[in-house]
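One such shown below:

_____
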Amino acid sequence: MKKFVTLNGPVAPLQLINIDTDQIIPKQYLSAISRAGLGKGLFHDFRYKPNGQEKGDFILNLKPYRNAKILLAGDNFGCGSSREHAPWALDDFGIRCVIAPGFADIFFNNCVKNGILLINMPETQVTELAGLAANPDSCVMSVDLKEQNITTKNGLQIGFDIETFRKHRLLNGLDDIEITLQKEADIKIFESKQKQAMPWLYRETSRINSG
């Protein structure tokens, strides 16, 4: 998993409440088993007309927001089904941080496991940032996870909270498998003791491996 330490780039304001995972990445993209290319389908129904042409008034179709790295969203962002393609699509588009007053729990955890930082921030502060982001001349901001702050182009700094373990795994780029492997020595000690105490658990596995 990619590490998240600092991020700098355009911020796209999309302050709609209850944006669900089907709106983030519609069902026609769910057959993909690779993350590559999913960014094209991000917010498909918001971005494209039925004939496939871009909608000229949608924020991610406008400069400089086409290169957005950070998204400002409304409350309950990521509700709906638990599809992991939603964080995949955000990441493939280039968005690695979403700031909102609230997130759906499963979506929140899926994003952390895919290296995307979600910042839960009071609506008044999100609105303040959105006011700056709405202006292309002041939409570039920086996020520093280690220092836990957001810095706007005019020098305004806003701090944010994050649970310690989530911060640790994002800073170090640790997915679930990598976190488990950190305990590899302990796992081997446990297996060795278990083989001695319960050898029958390993007999069938040995026959399968040798056959």
